[in-house]
Specification:
heterodimer; A: 601 residues; alpha+beta; Four Helix Bundle (Hemerythrin (Met), subunit A); Alpha-Beta Plaits; Heat Shock Protein 90; 4 domains; six-stranded mixed β-sheet; five-stranded mixed β-sheet; 24 strands; globular; B: 95 residues; alpha/beta; Transcription Regulator spoIIAA; four-stranded parallel β-sheet; 3 helices; 41% helix; 21% strand
Chain lengths: 601, 95
């Protein structure tokens, strides 16, 4: 297995708890009969969905297959197509019993058959469906791959199930040699990456193109076609999975009738599934919005705190308490178990190690430490590289094991990287890791390396458990890099010419499409200063729009991990905070509220 | 019909495939093997070129009305072959 034991243990523990809850809830649903408690049914459905997703990520194929079948039946209960009578609940409970057994056996190599439960659950799915849908369980739909002789054969029921989840269906066209092998990727990682962005409904190789062992073309191409379901639209999907548009085909016309029939049939069902899907999206959007407002509030509060007026002290304290509670809520929402994300380092190490013909493994010891998922994701790349550099320091044929230990002290998390056998390095060697060091320091963290004969080489990282992250655009203004908060940016105009700038109502403005946009500069606000600028960010603060002159032609997105606010910065009232970029440079965060107010004056 | 089990004992990746391919060709062409079991005990990784080797072996054996079976596949490799629907072409047994 590629996943470390600790992650699997967490999955086992959570799944056992979840299954116990599902069992109780199923019995409650059975007692309610036809008066289905929809919120409870959906809760059970979602819990099983989580189990299935976990099994998928951990490559637990039988648990995934069985939980998918249970999920299908639960979906029918949610859609009121199936009443949770004793017979139905009994079959579901049999499936859950087998899931318990499969989970008990995860760490052993024993296998267990799921044939009986699968037949019962599939039978239930098809037996209770209305006649017009029942046919779809066996009815196979041919979906031709455009511009090719290949065809997917897939049951209509499977397609309808996917459509009911509000997903779009695409055909993805890959060449595993060009798109995977030549990019130093492994097929397993490639599939896992795909599955992070949707579901593989079906797939196949063009095995004839691959040829036989004797043929010269062997190893030169491996056409691979994927029928893929994703909530993303065409452009979003191409961007997310990094493929050229010609590698993605939409199949709307081939399944148009299914979409229609599904809409006709769905009534309560479709609205249940779709609204659940939409709600998840909305929750994510709301969280982003809340995060943005929190940042704005934090900056405002920081300015406000500089006011020495004692009469305002009570108001300041009240606002501070609101801000603290809001911050605590966001911290909780963004926190996940560190091991749930950092296990990917172990996978990377193993894959790189195989490609470099060295044997290395990661022993991940994170316990139950919770951290911001955005920070954890940004730790994966530098930690992987540091570990690989450590491994390369050791000249040995025997497998090398590196331990990544995490512990918590107050609000700081300490990570220690060390060789599991410290005596493996007998003399001190200084490792050059300045690129990775900068990436880690950009997370508001400290990193250092040390060596002693007892502990061997260790890398220590000290990182705040909760950080203040501001999503923004990195731009250059007068040779200094700034992060302009995403929520303030509405547009970016480029290729501006000197003649577009003018003085209007004793302010500088830009004449764009016969409209005047009032503009402000960070360091200077004279006409000649603006006439040298070729780009402008259109910003908005509290309904007031204005332009911020910048030098960059492109603005790249960057999640700025703000450093603790420094009093020194307050001498520059237009700077709200600062952060370190991943290349070691310092970036300033302009106080957009201050700039907007300055324009008003 | 002649049957044989081979055990590569190492990851099936681009660096070993040319030699592996030669061995397979020799087994099929010279020894006349038509039923081949590839035992993946000790194999933890298969890359894209390695996958190609399995498919090419299957294609070669199919031309001779033979059969390829992959046995003792690790969980990851079993999952990889199943997801890529290679089990529709040849039999894959989990380790």
């Amino acid at each position: 297995m590629l996943i470390d034991r600790e992650t699997i243990d967490i999955y086992i523990e959570e799944t056992n708890q979840s299954l116990a809850e599902i069992e109780n809830n199923l019995i409650t649903l059975e007692n309610m009969g036809a008066n289905i408690d929809m919120s409870l049914a959906k809760y059970v459905y979602h819990a099983m969905h989580v189990i299935r997703n976990g099994a998928s990520l951990l490559s637990l194929s039988k648990i995934k297959e069985l939980s998918q079948k249970i999920e299908n039946v639960l979906g029918l209960i949610c859609n009121t197509r199936l009443t949770p009578n004793p017979e139905v609940i009994n079959i579901l409970l049999q499936g859950i019993d087998r899931l318990y057994q499969l989970i008990d056996l995860i760490h052993s190599n024993d296998d267990m058959d799921i044939g009986e439960q699968s037949v019962l659950l599939t039978g239930l799915t098809s037996a209770v469906l209305p006649d017009n849908i029942k046919q779809s369980v066996t009815e196979v739909r041919d979906i031709p791959v455009p511009d090719s002789k290949h065809v997917f054969h897939i049951t209509e029921f499977n397609l309808i199930q996917v459509l009911e989840q509000g997903k779009n269906i695409y055909i993805l066209i890959y060449d595993l040699i060009k798109d995977v092998q030549e990019k130093n990727n492994t097929p397993l990682n490639f599939l896992r990456f795909l599955q992070e962005h949707g579901d593989i409904v079906d797939s196949f190789f063009d095995i004839h193109s691959i040829g036989t062992l004797e043929e010269k073309k062997f190893g030169s191409e491996m056409p691979y076609f994927v029928l893929f379901a994703s909530k993303f639209n065409f452009e979003q999907l191409a961007d997310a999975i990094g493929v050229q548009p010609h590698q993605i085909k939409q199949i709307k016309s081939t399944i148009a009738d299914l979409v229609d029939s599904e809409k006709k049939l769905d009534q309560p069902e479709f609205s249940v599934s779709f609204s659940t899907h939409q709600r998840h999206l909305n929750i994510k959007n709301r969280l982003n919005m809340l995060n943005s407002l929190f940042c704005e509030f934090q900056f405002t509060m920081d300015c406000f705190s500089q006011n020495r007026d004692h009469q305002l002290s009570m108001d300041k304290a009240r606002l501070k308490s609101v801000l603290t509670s809001l911050g605590a809520f966001l911290n909780q929402e963004n926190s996940v178990l560190a091991s749930k994300i950092l296990w990917k380092i172990g996978r990377n190490i193993r894959d790189h190690a195989y490609q470099s013909n060295i044997q290395a493994m990661l022993n991940l010891q994170c316990g139950l430490i919770m951290m911001d998922h955005r920070i954890l994701h940004r730790l994966i790349d530098p930690l992987t590289t540091i570990i690989l550099k450590m491994v390369r320091l050791v000249q040995t044929e025997t497998p090398i094991q590196i331990t990544l230990n995490a512990s918590k002290n107050q609000d700081m998390v300490h990570f220690t990287l060390s060789f599991s056998r410290p005596q493996i390095l007998t003399k001190e060697i200084r490792m050059d890791y300045h690129v990775e060091k900068n990436k880690i320091k950009a997370l508001c963290a400290n990193i250092s390396q040390s060596f002693d004969l007892k502990k061997g080489m260790t890398i220590d990282i000290c990182i705040p458990q909760h950080v203040f992250i501001l999503p923004g655009y990195a731009v250059v203004i007068d040779t200094q890099t700034y992060i302009v908060p995403t929520f303030n940016v509405k547009n970016c105009l480029t290729n501006l010419t000197p003649s577009m700038w003018c003085e209007k109502d004793s302010c500088i403005a830009l004449n764009h499409e016969e409209k005047y946009i009032q503009v402000i500069g960070i360091n200077n606000s004279t006409l000649s200063y603006f006439q040298e600028k070729t780009s402008l960010m259109i910003c908005e603060v509290g309904g007031q729009r204005f332009g911020l002159a910048i030098d960059s032609r492109d603005a790249s997105e960057y999640d700025a991990v703000c450093q603790p606010f420094s009093n020194q910065l307050h001498s520059n009232s237009f700077i709200a905070a600062n952060c370190l970029l991943e290349d070691g440079r310092i970036a300033m965060i302009p106080d957009m509220g201050f700039l907007a107010n300055k324009l008003k004056q | 019909m002649s049957k044989k089990v081979i055990r590569p004992g190492q990851d099936i990746v681009a660096s070993m495939v040319p030699e592996f391919k030669k061995n397979l060709q020799a087994l099929i062409a010279e020894e006349g093997i038509t039923e081949l079991d590839i035992d993946l005990s000790g194999v933890e990784m298969v890359d894209s070129v390695g996958l190609g080797a399995f498919i090419a072996t299957h294609n070669t054996l199919s031309q001779k009305n033979g059969k390829l079976t992959v046995i003792h596949a690790s969980d990851d490799i079993y999952s990889l072959f199943k997801t890529m629907r290679l089990d529709q072409h040849f039999e894959i047994q989990q380790g």
